[in-house]
C-alpha cells in the first residue's frame, strides 16, 4: 500500500475513473462535465480518457437530463448525473421526488432506480444566493432516497462505489469549499460504508454533530475547546438519510451535551431533525438543551464579511459548546 | 330579590382549601382522612386533614378561618397538588349549605347581576359576568367612579395570576439527566443549588451535592422531614390513642417447622433469592387478614369499611429517627419470593426517602416488626383509619413443651392491637390463631 498526496477534487475524479473503468454500464452526464472538464474541474480529463459516449455534456435542462438518467437506470445502466449546484437541482426536483424516489414503491418493487446524482452544495466562496445554499436537508426528508455527504478525502474517494452498488437513488452532496482540501490518501482506496456515521474525534464532554462542509469548522472548534479543557466527540454523519441514530444517541448518552452544526437554515432543518431524535431517545441523558449552530436565515449574501457572518464559524461552535457544557 | 345579594355576598367569601405542596417534588397527595366535618368551625392554623405524601403522612393546617362548607375529596383519594379539597365559608351560617357533592363540582356561575351601587355599562357588566367578577368588589377608575372595561380586565388578571404563577414558581429547573442522576445518587434535587442557566440544576451540581455529606439524601431528607414527620407521627398517634379504644392480644408462635422449611428452601436457592423469616411472617399475616376480614379495612364515619384486598403496611424505622409505613399492595396474592423482593425494596426506598407513590397506597392493616432490634414483643399503636396492627418480636430460642418434654424451639411473639370499635377479642384471637396455623404450614405460604 502506498500513500499519495491528493485533493478532495482529485479523490472524486479518481473514484469516477475507477467506476468508469470497472463497469461499462457506468457513464457520467451533466452540464460542462465533458469538454470544459466540469464546472469544478472534477471531471477534467475524463472525456479524453473515456470518450463522449460515457462522458456526456448536456443542455442546461436539469429536469431533462436527470429524467434521462432515471430512464437509463431503469434500462439497466448505472448513470452518474452531475448537477452543478444544489440550487439548480430544484429544477429537477419533480424527477428526483416524483420519479426516482417513488418508482420502486409505485411499481410494486419491479422498477428500481440505481442512479447516483452528484451535486455541489454550500457557501463560502462568494457565489451569492443562487449558488450557495445547503438544501441537502430537504432531500434528506424524502423516503426512497439515500443522501450522502463525504467530508474527508477517504470518503470522497470511497463512497462512490457503494453508492453505485446501492439499488436506490443516491444523492451525493459535495461541499464546494472542500474541493481544494489536500492530504494524504492510501492507495489502493478502500470502499467506505454509507450506512454509519464516523467519529472524527473522541471526547466525553460534549457531542458535536455535523457533516460535510462544516466538519473542518467543527474540528477547529474542537481543538479550541480542548485548549479550554472541554473534550468534544465530533460526529461526522456522512449519510444524512438514513441517519445513523445509534452513533448519535450513544455519543450523547456518554457526553450528556449536544451541539448540532448544520450549514442549512435552522427552521425545519436537518439540525431540527437530529435535535428531535436526541430528545426522543436520550432525553434523560441530557444535561442541557441541545444547541444548534446554523446558517443565518437569510439568502446567502455575496459580500465576504456578510457571508462569513451568515455561516457557522468555529467561534460560534465553541460558544455553543460552552453554553451546553455551562 | 333578597336571595341574590345574600347568596352572592356569602359566595364571595368562600375560600378553597387545596391540596398543599409539602415539598418541591410533591406532585400529588393522598387524603388519608378528614379531621373536620362539614359545619365545623375552623381557624387559621387548625389541623384539618391528614395527607399522605411520598415521604410521610402530614397533617395539614388550613389558612382560612370559617366554616367547613363542603368536603370535595374522599379519604383514600389521591389528587394533584392544588386540587380543591374543601370549601370553607366565612359566613355566619353554622350549617353546611346542603348535601356535599360527590365530586369537586364546578363553582356555580356567579349572579348575572351585580349590586346596584356599581356603575358600569352593559358590555362591562357582561364581561364581568362572563368571568365571574363581582363588580361590587371592583374599584372603578372611570368617570364618577364608573367601572371600565380595563378595570374588569385587571380584576380578571389579578384573580388568575396567582393560579398561573404558583405552579411555575414551585417547579424547579433541573436537567433531565441531573434529575436521573439525583435519583441514582440518592440526592434530593430540591436541596441542590443550580449553577446552570437561570439557576438550573445540572449534573455537576448533583455530583457536587452527592459528595457533600451534609446534603446527601438520607441525611437531609430525614433531618428536613424529621420535624414534619415527627409532628405527623405525633398527631396521628395521639389521635389514634385518643380515638381508638385499643385491645391487645398476644400469642407465642412456635417456628421450628417454618424455619426448617425456610432453611431447606434457601439452601437450594441463589443467594439473591433467599428469603428471611420476616417475609414468612408478613405473608402469614396477609393471608390471615384475608381470612379474617373484620380486621382488614378502615374505620370511617363511625363504621367499619372492609377492604377488598390486603394492602399490608410495613413499618420501617429510619436510621435518622422517624418511621414510614409504606405498603405492599395485594400482599395476600403475592408469592413469597415477591413479598421478599417488595420488602427489600420498600425498606431501601423508605430509608433513602425515595418511596414510590405506589408504596404509599393506603394500607388496610399494618405490621411492625421490631425483631431485628432484639425486642421480644411489641404492642403497637394502630395507624388510623386502620383497625388493627400486628407486632412481631425477635425470633428467640426458648424452652418449649413438646409433648411431655421440654425442648429448645425458635419462637416469636405476635401481638395484635385491635380497634375495639370494629372488633372484639374473639375476632382478634381467631386472627392470631390463623397466623399461627399458616406458619405451621409454610409450604402453603
UniProtKB/TrEMBL annotation, chain A:
> NCBIfam families attached here?
PRK09212.1 (NF006667)
Give the top-level enzyme category: oxidoreductase
Q: Which CDD domains does this UniProt record tie to the protein?
A: TPP_PYR_E1-PDHc-beta_like (cd07036)
Q: Which cofactor does it need?
A: thiamine diphosphate
The species this protein was found in: Saccharopolyspora phatthalungensis
Q: Could you name the domain of life of the organism this protein comes from?
A: Bacteria
E.C. designation(s)? 1.2.4.1
Tell me the keywords, alphabetical order: Oxidoreductase, Pyruvate, Thiamine pyrophosphate
Its organism's taxonomic lineage begins at: Bacteria, Bacillati, Actinomycetota, Actinomycetes, Pseudonocardiales
Keyword Transcription regulation belongs to the record: no
Q: What Pfam family is a match, any one?
A: Transketolase_C
Protein name in UniProt: Pyruvate dehydrogenase E1 component beta subunit
From TrEMBL, chain B:
Domain Peripheral subunit-binding (PSBD) stretches:
119-156, 173-210
The reply to whether Nuclease figures as a keyword in the UniProt entry is no
- GO CC terms on record? cytoplasm
The EC designation for this entry is 2.3.1.-
Q: Where is the Lipoyl-binding domain?
A: 14-89
Q: Which Pfam families match?
A: 2-oxoacid_dh, Biotin_lipoyl, E3_binding
Q: Which GO terms fall under molecular function for this chain's record?
A: acetyltransferase activity; lipoic acid binding
Cofactor dependence is on: (R)-lipoate
The region called Disordered is annotated at 90-117
Q: Which Gene3D superfamilies does its entry note?
A: 2.40.50.100, Chloramphenicol acetyltransferase-like domain, E3-binding domain
Q: Which UniProt keywords apply?
A: Acyltransferase, Lipoyl, Pyruvate, Transferase
* Family annotation (InterPro entries): 2-oxoacid_DH_actylTfrase, 2-oxoacid_DH_E2_comp, Biotin_lipoyl, CAT-like_dom_sf, E3-bd_dom_sf, PSBD, Single_hybrid_motif
The keyword Acyltransferase belongs to this UniProt entry's keyword annotation: yes
Q: Which domain of life is it from?
A: Bacteria
The similarity annotation says: Belongs to the 2-oxoacid dehydrogenase family.
Report the protein name in the record: Dihydrolipoamide acetyltransferase component of pyruvate dehydrogenase complex
What species was this sequence derived from? Saccharopolyspora phatthalungensis
Amino acid at each position: 500500500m502506498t500513500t499519495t498526496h491528493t485533493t478532495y477534487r482529485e479523490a472524486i475524479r479518481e473514484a469516477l475513473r475507477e467506476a468508469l473503468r470497472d463497469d461499462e454500464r457506468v457513464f457520467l452526464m451533466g452540464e460542462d462535465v465533458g469538454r470544459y472538464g466540469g464546472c469544478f474541474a472534477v471531471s477534467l480529463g475524463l472525456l479524453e480518457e473515456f470518450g463522449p459516449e460515457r462522458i456526456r455534456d448536456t443542455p442546461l435542462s436539469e429536469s431533462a437530463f436527470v429524467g434521462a438518467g432515471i430512464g437509463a437506470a431503469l434500462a439497466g445502466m448505472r448513470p452518474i448525473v452531475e448537477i452543478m449546484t444544489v440550487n439548480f437541482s430544484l429544477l429537477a426536483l419533480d424527477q428526483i421526488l416524483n420519479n426516482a424516489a417513488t418508482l420502486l414503491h409505485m411499481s410494486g418493487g419491479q422498477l428500481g432506480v440505481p442512479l447516483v446524482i452528484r451535486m455541489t452544495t454550500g457557501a463560502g466562496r462568494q457565489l451569492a444566493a443562487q449558488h450557495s445554499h445547503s438544501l441537502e436537508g430537504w432531500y434528506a426528508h424524502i423516503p426512497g432516497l439515500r443522501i450522502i455527504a463525504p467530508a474527508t478525502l477517504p470518503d470522497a474517494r470511497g463512497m462512490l462505489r457503494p453508492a453505485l452498488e446501492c439499488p436506490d437513488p443516491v444523492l451525493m452532496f459535495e461541499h464546494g469549499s472542500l474541493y481544494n482540501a489536500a492530504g494524504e490518501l492510501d492507495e489502493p482506496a478502500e470502499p467506505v460504508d454509507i450506512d454509519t456515521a464516523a467519529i472524527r474525534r473522541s471526547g466525553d464532554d460534549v457531542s458535536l454533530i455535523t457533516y460535510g462542509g462544516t466538519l473542518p469548522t467543527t474540528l477547529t472548534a474542537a481543538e479550541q475547546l480542548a485548549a479550554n479543557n472541554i473534550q468534544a466527540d465530533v460526529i461526522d454523519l456522512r449519510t444524512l438519510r438514513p441517519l445513523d441514530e445509534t452513533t448519535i444517541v450513544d455519543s450523547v448518552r456518554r457526553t450528556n451535551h449536544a451541539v448540532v452544526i448544520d450549514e442549512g437554515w435552522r427552521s425545519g432543518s436537518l439540525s431540527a431533525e437530529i435535535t428531535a431524535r436526541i430528545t426522543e431517545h436520550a432525553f434523560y441523558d441530557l444535561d442541557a438543551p441541545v444547541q444548534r449552530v446554523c446558517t443565518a436565515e437569510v439568502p446567502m449574501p455575496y459580500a465576504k464579511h456578510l457571508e462569513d457572518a451568515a455561516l457557522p464559524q468555529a467561534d460560534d461552535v465553541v460558544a455553543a459548546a460552552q453554553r451546553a457544557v455551562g | 330579590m333578597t336571595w341574590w345579594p345574600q347568596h352572592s355576598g356569602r359566595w364571595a367569601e368562600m375560600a378553597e382549601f387545596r391540596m398543599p405542596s409539602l415539598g418541591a417534588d410533591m406532585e400529588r397527595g393522598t387524603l388519608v382522612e378528614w379531621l373536620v366535618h362539614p359545619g365545623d368551625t375552623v381557624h387559621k392554623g387548625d389541623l384539618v386533614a391528614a395527607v399522605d405524601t411520598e415521604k410521610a403522612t402530614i397533617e395539614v393546617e388550613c389558612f382560612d378561618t370559617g366554616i367547613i362548607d363542603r368536603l370535595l375529596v374522599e379519604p383514600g383519594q389521591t389528587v394533584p397538588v392544588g386540587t380543591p379539597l374543601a370549601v370553607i365559608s366565612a359566613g355566619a351560617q353554622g350549617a353546611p349549605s346542603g348535601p356535599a357533592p360527590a365530586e369537586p363540582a364546578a363553582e356555580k356561575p356567579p349572579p348575572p347581576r351585580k349590586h346596584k351601587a356599581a356603575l358600569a355599562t352593559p358590555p362591562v357588566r357582561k364581561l364581568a359576568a362572563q368571568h365571574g367578577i363581582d363588580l361590587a368588589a371592583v374599584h372603578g377608575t372611570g368617570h364618577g367612579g364608573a367601572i371600565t372595561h380595563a378595570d374588569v380586565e385587571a380584576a380578571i388578571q389579578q384573580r388568575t395570576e396567582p393560579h398561573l404563577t404558583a405552579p411555575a414558581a414551585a417547579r424547579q429547573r433541573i436537567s433531565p439527566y441531573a434529575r436521573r442522576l439525583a435519583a441514582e445518587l440518592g440526592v434530593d434535587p430540591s436541596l441542590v443549588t443550580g449553577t446552570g442557566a437561570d439557576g438550573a440544576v445540572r449534573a455537576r451540581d448533583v455530583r457536587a451535592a452527592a459528595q457533600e455529606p451534609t446534603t446527601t439524601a438520607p441525611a437531609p431528607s430525614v433531618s428536613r422531614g424529621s420535624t414534619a414527620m415527627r409532628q405527623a407521627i405525633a398527631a396521628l398517634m395521639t389521635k389514634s390513642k385518643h380515638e381508638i379504644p385499643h385491645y391487645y392480644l398476644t400469642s407465642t408462635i412456635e417456628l421450628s417447622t417454618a424455619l426448617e422449611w425456610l432453611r431447606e428452601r434457601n439452601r437450594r436457592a441463589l443467594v439473591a433469592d433467599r428469603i428471611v423469616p420476616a417475609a414468612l411472617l408478613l405473608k402469614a399475616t396477609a393471608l390471615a387478614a384475608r381470612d379474617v376480614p373484620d380486621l382488614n379495612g378502615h374505620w370511617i364515619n363511625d363504621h367499619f369499611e372492609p377492604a377488598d384486598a390486603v394492602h399490608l403496611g410495613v413499618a420501617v424505622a429510619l436510621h435518622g429517627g422517624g418511621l414510614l409505613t409504606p405498603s405492599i399492595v395485594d400482599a395476600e396474592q403475592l408469592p413469597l419470593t415477591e413479598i421478599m423482593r417488595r420488602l427489600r425494596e420498600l425498606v431501601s426506598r423508605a430509608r433513602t426517602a425515595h418511596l414510590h407513590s405506589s408504596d404509599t397506597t393506603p394500607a388496610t392493616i399494618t405490621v411492625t416488626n421490631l425483631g431485628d432490634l432484639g425486642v421480644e414483643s411489641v404492642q403497637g399503636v394502630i395507624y388510623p383509619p386502620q383497625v388493627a396492627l400486628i407486632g412481631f418480636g425477635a425470633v428467640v430460642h426458648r424452652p418449649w413443651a413438646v409433648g411431655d418434654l421440654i425442648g429448645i424451639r425458635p419462637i416469636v411473639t405476635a401481638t395484635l392491637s385491635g380497634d375495639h370499635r370494629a372488633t372484639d377479642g374473639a375476632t382478634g384471637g381467631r386472627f392470631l390463631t390463623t397466623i399461627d396455623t399458616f406458619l405451621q404450614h409454610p409450604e402453603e405460604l
